[in-house]
Amino acid sequence: MLELLKPITWFAPMWAFGCGVVSSGVPISERWLVMVAGIVLAGPMVTATSQAANDWYDRHVDAINEPNRPIPSGRIPGRWGLYIALIWTALSLVLASFLGIWVFWAAVVGLILAWAYSAPPFRLKKNGWWGNSAVAACYEGLPWFTGAAVMVGGLPDWRIITLAALYSLGAHGIMTLNDFKAVEGDLKMGIRSLPAQLGVARAARFACFVMAFPQVIVIALLFSWGKPIYAAAVCVSLLVQFALMARLLREPKEQAAWYNATGTTLYVLGMLISAFALRTIGA
């Protein structure tokens, strides 16, 4: 069951949730219990739900490509993969209901996207434009919003929402890079990932643009909000990303995993820097 829920996937939304906590400007000591509950909601509950649902609806393909996974291997028998996803959905909503109305509705949106990503009739994962948008929102924007909402006990400041949305947009490019490893399989299975639709080279250029452009806006906003040091730090991070992107664009398929370990790390560090900038202006 733990393998089905994939703890390794929980890190990204938990990081974004942490950025939301920091950006709120509320001392952790004042609301540490609800913060812990929010971390559990972001990672072990909502993200884990998405993983269970995805494995259930992918069980026939996994039986061919990855037969050792919990469901196709029979280690989770019958329809228990579906039951676990449904139970985790219900538990996520129960937990979210104790954390405030804005957190509850953020969880509802996240869970709807999680199911729509994998389940028919929507099955957003079959098209890179929609699927990547859903994952980016669930991994970056919604957890950031939730982290801030948990701490302030209501609707976060508009600057928090703006940066959360921008970094969520940029994460669409990160999701595109994750599709490079399965281009041939996607073409055979009729999955319209962006590398399958646009070709590897064009998809790589698009991913780089989508990752970089929101960060440029973040830098401009931080300058306009009177935080030049934080803006400069994000700018340095972006310049290094540009240098790494040059290597990525030469061999996108071969270098995508390497870029995710380097450039994406700088991207999420920029998120945290931006969160600290918001904290210092009382957002």
UniProtKB/TrEMBL annotation:
Coiled-coil stretches noted in the UniProt entry, renumbered to this chain: none
Its membrane topology: Multi-pass membrane protein
Keywords: Cell membrane, Chlorophyll biosynthesis, Membrane, Transferase, Transmembrane, Transmembrane helix
Pfam family, one: UbiA
The protein's Enzyme Commission number: 2.5.1.62
Subcellular location: Membrane
Protein's UniProt keywords contain Nucleotide-binding: no
Residue ranges crossing the lipid bilayer per the database entry: 7-26, 32-50, 82-115, 160-182, 203-223, 229-249, 256-278
Matches recorded under InterPro entries: Chl_synth, Prenyltransferase_related, UbiA_prenyltransferase, UbiA_sf
Listed GO MF terms: chlorophyll synthetase activity
PANTHER family: CHLOROPHYLL SYNTHASE (PTHR42723), CHLOROPHYLL SYNTHASE, CHLOROPLASTIC (PTHR42723:SF1)
Family annotation (NCBIfam families): chlor_syn_BchG (TIGR01476), PRK07566.1 (NF005742)
Name of the protein this chain belongs to: Chlorophyll synthase
Lineage: Bacteria, Pseudomonadati, Pseudomonadota, Alphaproteobacteria, Hyphomicrobiales
